């Protein structure tokens, strides 16, 4: 039995060697290494400016969300409307026809720059108004009475109201 196992091992070993050499010869040569980019400094500077822009955008969005959260917590809806009225009207800033070209251009730039924040405040006010309406629907009762008035024919019917708080109710 030892001789049979040994001969099988030799066959398998030589067969494996034959396959490995055939596989090596069938493989294409590796590709040549890529040349080093000569403008590595320019790519690094471009990458840094792109990262800076991303971080500034994230910081602006985080600051806007924090400001909206604080305004929601600290002020009522009417107070926020009063405080932002001047900002929302500044988006429609215009100058007279007798103004110089530079003043007209400056007014156009100012009104364009103030349009986005004004629209964001209007969106915030609309969303807050809708949210407060939804909360009001759940927090205030829908009617003055808990139960409706009885029909005159049902005046003799009694109503029992049970308080089941802290009571386990189950059926077997």
Automatic annotation (TrEMBL):
Protein name, UniProt field: Import inner membrane translocase subunit TIM50
Organism: Solanum stoloniferum
Disordered: annotated segments: 23-42
Biased composition (Pro residues): 27-36
Protein origin, superkingdom: Eukaryota
């Amino acid at each position: 039995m030892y001789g049979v196992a040994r001969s099988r091992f030799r066959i398998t070993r030589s067969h494996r060697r034959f396959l490995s050499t055939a596989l090596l010869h069938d493989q294409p040569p590796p590709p040549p290494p890529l040349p080093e980019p000569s403008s590595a400094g320019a790519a690094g500077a471009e990458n840094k400016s792109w990262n800076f822009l991303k971080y500034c955008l994230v910081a602006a969005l985080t600051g806007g969300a924090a400001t909206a959260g604080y305004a929601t917590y600290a002020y009522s809806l009417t107070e926020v409307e009063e405080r932002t009225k001047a900002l929302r009207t500044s988006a429609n800033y215009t100058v007279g026809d007798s103004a110089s070209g530079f003043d007209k251009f400056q007014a156009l730039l100012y009104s364009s720059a103030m349009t986005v924040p004004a629209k964001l405040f209007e969106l915030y006010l609309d969303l807050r108004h809708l949210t407060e309406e939804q909360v009001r629907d759940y927090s205030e009762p829908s009617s003055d009475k808990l139960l409706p008035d009885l029909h005159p024919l049902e005046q003799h019917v009694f109503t029992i109201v049970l308080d089941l708080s802290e009571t386990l109710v189950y059926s077997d």
